[in-house]
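Reviewers of the previous submission asked for a worked example of the structure-prediction workflow described in the proposal, so we include one complete record here. The input consisted solely of the amino acid sequence. No template or homolog information was supplied to the procedure at any stage.
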Amino acid sequence: MAFEISRNVIIGQYLPGTTLVHRLDPRTKIIGTLVLLSAVSFTRSLTSAVIYLLAILLITRFSQIPLGFVLRPFLRGLPVIFFFLTLSMLFLGWQEPAGTIFFQWGWLRITSNALALATLSLLRLVSLLMLIGLPTLTTRITELTHGTELLLLPFSRFGVPAHDIALVMTIALRFVPILTDELERVIKAQASRGGEIGDLSWRRPLEIGKALLPLIVPLFVNSFRRAEELAVAMEARCFVRGARRTKFVEMQSTRIDAFVNAGVLLFTLAVWFLPNVLSLP
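From that input alone, the workflow returned the following structure tokens.
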């Protein structure tokens, strides 16, 4: 198990750039991400899932973000993911319609339907991991917060606390890299005291679990301490829940943002109905 945990967590990290994706309005990125997330999550077509993944890869390439950096969390957990996908494929072998039976021995059966479902789950997982990380990689957290608040602001008349939700999102995104660094320091401290951490292989999951158990208590203690310090700092600055605040920078959408939103929506709908029109799987 490597010590550099922060290198494998992309949520909450920002990579500066001058591409069109970086310059888009944060609200456009949030809406586009939600649309693609919904499409990827609910599609049951392999063809649509592949097209969505290719589109996400193209957006990542266009954003000039290294593909290896985005896929790093997925690659680190690939053995565990394949293990659970193999189990699901074996147990789904008895689901009807089964399709073509490739292998059967006792209660184990591998069918074409089970393989298709396992492949679809894998494509969904990769797409979701990339989609979740792309907004923070191309947008500052403060901009995402302002964009979320502005999108939720029309619902405030129905009692939706737009500012509070945006604040919670900001704190959560900022705490992800902080807690990752904290966990990395705890692991290095344990290893420097002779703890069996750092040289364990993924082939020994029980040993990894036993080595990680002593890290939970100090991580939670440090998390609560940081949360308490944050609460004291907010009270010292006279933070009032639900108060309306003005902003130093006002966001302005352009025609490009409207074209991007319309393009993402039309692309998603076209790919969604494509398998039905062409009779594809």
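Strands lie at 101-105, 108-111. We consider this example representative of the routine output the project will generate in years two and three.
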